[in-house]
Write the structure tokens for this entry.
Amino acid sequence: MKLKYVFILGAISIVFYLASCSDMNDMHQPFMDDGEVVYAAQLDSVIALAGNNRIGLRMIALSQRIDKVRIYWNEDRDSIDVQIENQTGEFFEIIPDLSEGEYIFHLVCFDKFGNKSLKYEVSSEAYGSFYSAGLINRQIDKMEYVGDDLTITWKSFANSLGTILSYENSNDEVSELLIPIDENITTISDFKSDGKYWLQSLYKPTESAIDTFRTAVVEGILPHFVKYVICDKSLFVAMSLPNDMGRLGWDDNERMERLWDGSVGPQGYPWIFHGTSSRGVITFDMGIGYDDLALVEETGRDCCGNPLVFEIWGIDDISEAATELNSTDTGWSDEMTNKGWTLLKEVVRTDDGKVPYKVELNSDVPTVRYIRVRFKETVGDQAVNLSELTFWYQE
């Protein structure tokens, strides 16, 4: 009886096994009938790069079994094919004419037999007019002339790639400079006075973007430039009109010519002009007449007797221009004016009078060749001491 029971259980197990195998075959039969599924090779990597109403796709293919890549977007409604032709390397494709916004791309590879790969998904953004409208230009803080150069000081700025400065140059052409974002001062020398300039700042929405965006152009006018030229001191000649101050006379070096010998900074004895009193007048000829005399710089001695208050007068023709009154007389200024002299400037210094002191002359100065300097006050009321006098005219 026991052997019969075991035999029956074994028979049932065999029947169950055969039935199970039959069910599994039925489930896989459709796939077995269609044959084995073959997939094409997939791209190794894809990078999507933002652009201006377009997006660039950088694709890396290391397999030689990719004939082409089909790129889908707009929920796979739009597509474009990129021919790979079983080559390896980097392939770049631009998807053009995109509206501003986010995009998802599906990339499917095909081999030469028509087999296709699994999808490779990447996303990026197309930028356009909405993004551009929010960009701003870098601003200029100030423009000023330093010597013969134009110095531009920029306001602080961030997030930009830089700013293009275009300007009319001295040859009536347009020069262009790219101003880095970290450059705060720009100096140019080939500018055109009162010429036009244009500003345009550059941006990228992302570091890897394929396009650079520019702001709207801002136009301006360069400031008026006045070039000052030093009067030719080699033409200067000392003169002496009635009641003019003499030199002290202790040393022949103390003559008036020391005022235009080209020395720089306060000089010491005896390389100075040393007058005979604290108040008085000196006269000299500049050699030629200047129509646009504009600036004067006076430098005192290194120690004492430096002028604090003095007047500068000028005239073009000295004939009949000599005055009779002493410069301390209250009627001296009126007599000077009646003789044709023009007060070019009254200079008042509030320091010790040593270092070079430059001031602008009065406006509407007539043509001037001859100069008279009237000293009215010195440091310590000592006799006048001077190192240098320099004049500039407008070119």
Q: What stands out?
A: The radius of gyration is 45 Å. The longest strand covers residues 280-290. The helical segments are 2-34, 129-133, 332-338.
